[in-house]
Write a structure and sequence with these properties.
The protein has 306 residues and is an alpha/beta fold. Helix content is 48%, strand content 12%. The radius of gyration is 21 Å and the shape is elongated. The chain starts with 10 loop residues before the first strand and ends in a 15-residue tail after the last helix.
Length: 306
């Protein structure tokens, strides 16, 4: 006999803590899928709160985290990773024991540490999540109900996370179109330091190195598609990436050391005029990149916050 598939839960009240692109897109996706009855939201900016109401992303705006969370059976924390601990502390006493709490942070070990320090007995409500999605533009105006479709969402459960909460989190993200994966927090942060955080750091550094030169502006005028493609992620939100790089600094610095060693190989071959060795290094990278393909759930990713 074939077992019944789990039904997607319908939530009475979603509390959206952080009314930006990521949180707003989650709210719109749930509303479009018919999975939520009422959406309330909090943002530190009154202007943003009101704009979220005007755009019908949320039904009601709250002036503090506790009021938003009160009575909610689903809570999404969509604030910069540097603001997580304050948000956890603010919601702890108002959070229902039965509520499902998730975040959308790009780093996980630090977010989990913040939750462990602040949530107390409500830690069992928390399922850490990282949807690999986004846009090059931020803000509630750019919220999109399709943002998470065909994208990967990674869950990094805690030892305290119940099977029921984990299943509910998996089902919710799948219901709005995500491919859901599970990783340990440590594996998550090491992985994304390599494939996201370091590339962003390099893009920032490359643009700064160019513009620091006396002829940088002239050079930039001549830049073509190669520079456009390489530097795209350098246009990312500075505050967001300050927090991400700082939060995951140990893993990022490890990746910087690997990159520095690889760069030194190229430097040495150029200084020595060793063209066969130079070609070998280029061919090695070309072969890896040519063989690599985007996995299901990662395709068409124009994320500036992955």
């Amino acid at each position: 006999m074939t077992p019944e598939r789990p039904t997607t839960p319908r939530f009475e009240r979603l509390a959206l803590i952080g009314c930006g692109l990521m949180g707003g897109s989650f709210a719109l996706a749930l509303r479009k899928a018919g999975l939520v009855k009422t959406i309330v939201g909090f943002s530190a900016s009154e202007k943003t709160r009101q704009r979220a109401v005007e755009l019908k992303v949320i039904d009601h705006a709250c002036t503090n985290v506790a009021d938003a969370v009160q009575g909610a059976d689903l809570v999404l924390l969509a604030v910069p990773v540097g603001a997580m601990q304050v948000s956890f502390a603010a919601m702890r006493d108002a959070l229902q024991p039965s509520a499902l709490l998730m975040d959308v942070g790009s780093t996980k070990c630090d977010v989990i540490a913040a939750a462990q320090a602040s949530l107390g007995e409500r830690l069992s409500c928390f399922v850490p999540a990282h949807p690999i999605a986004g846009k090059e533009v931020a803000g509630i105006e750019h919220a999109d109900s399709t943002l998470y479709q065909k994208r990967r969402t990674i869950l990094t459960p805690l030892p305290q996370t119940s099977i029921q909460k984990m299943q509910a989190a998996h089902t919710v993200w799948a219901a709005i179109g995500s491919h859901v994966s599970t990783m340990t927090p440590e594996a998550h942060d090491a992985t994304f330091a390599a494939v996201s955080h370091l590339p962003h750091l390099l893009a920032f550094a490359a643009v700064n190195a160019l513009t620091a030169q006396s002829q940088g502006a002239t050079f930039l005028e001549m830049a073509g598609p190669g520079f456009r493609d390489f530097s795209r992620i350098a246009a990312s939100d500075a505050a967001v990436w300050r927090d991400i790089l700082s939060a995951n600094k140990t893993e990022v610095l490890m990746q910087v050391s690997y990159f520095r060693a690889a760069l030194e190989q190229f430097e040495n071959t150029l200084r020595l005029g060793d063209t066969p060795a130079l070609q070998h290094l280029i061919q090695q990278a070309s072969d890896v990149r040519s063989a690599w393909t985007l996995q299901a759930g990662n395709a068409c990713n124009q994320d500036s916050e992955d």
